[in-house]
Amino acid sequence: MPIDGSLGQAEPQTKLSLHGVGHGFEANHFLFRNLNAEFPANSARGLRGPSGSGKSTLLSIIAGWEMPKEGHVERTGISTVRWVFQNPLGVPQRTALDHVALPYLATGLSRNHSEELAFERLADFGLQRSASKRFSLLSGGEAQRLMLARAVAGNPDLILVDEPTAQLDRATAGTVNSVLGGLAKSGAVVIVASHDQDTLDACSEVLDLTTLGAGSTAT
């Protein structure tokens, strides 16, 4: 599933680093601690852990929405962040093509050029035949893949994906997992939080939050 050069590539120095990051919501309880890790561009990295282990919290810290209790996040060459949430959010009456064209329109491209690029992104995620479908008529798998295609549009520097298959049956989840690896080809730093082993298998490396207790280090 090639994503061609029209996406552009992030600058070679684009990366995200965690330095001694720890966080919790009670004085003496940490979800994770002493977390040191690097997330380079052009690579999809996974975060493993059951519900309550801090995956979504860590994504919020990585995005800069929340400050860690300990340590800090270093963002190099990162200015644009895109999220893909568990539940696909779209405008019911808008087509799939409209959803992916919007980020390109926001950069100042013409309608025609934006739609050309949007159709290429839909094709990258196996949605070219659904381009004219209204969002309300997409299947669960199609809707989630559409969110991935929209996340890539407009050349973001960081893509955060939170439990992309949590609400899907196994067959439908398989269609989403099959395209996750393609996110890394956008040139962005890509981080996927999941407890689904098939989803994590689509990532190049996996960080297991269940092993990150007090004093532990991830590399």
User: Which oligomeric form is depicted?
Assistant: single chain
- Residue runs with pLDDT of under 50 for 5 or more positions: 1-11, 214-219
Distance between the termini: 29 Å
Q: What is the CATH C-level name of the largest domain?
A: Alpha Beta
Specify the number of helices.
6
Question: Would you kindly provide a written description of the structure presented here, covering whatever features stand out?
Answer:
- The protein is of the alpha/beta class.
- The protein has two domains: 122 residues, P-loop containing nucleotide triphosphate hydrolases (Rossmann fold), CATH 3.40.50; 61 residues.
- 29% of the residues lie in helices and 23% in strands.
- The strands form two sheets. It has a five-stranded parallel beta sheet with strand order 5-6-7-3-8, with helices on both faces. A three-stranded antiparallel beta sheet has the order 2-1-4, with helices on one face.
- A hairpin with an 8-residue loop joins strand 1 and strand 2.
- Helix 2 packs across helix 3, helix 2 packs parallel to helix 4 and helix 4 runs parallel beside helix 5.
- It is globular, with a radius of gyration of 17 Å.
- The protein starts with 14 loop residues before the first strand and ends in an 11-residue tail after the last strand.
- The relative contact order is 0.24.
- The N terminus and C terminus are likely disordered.
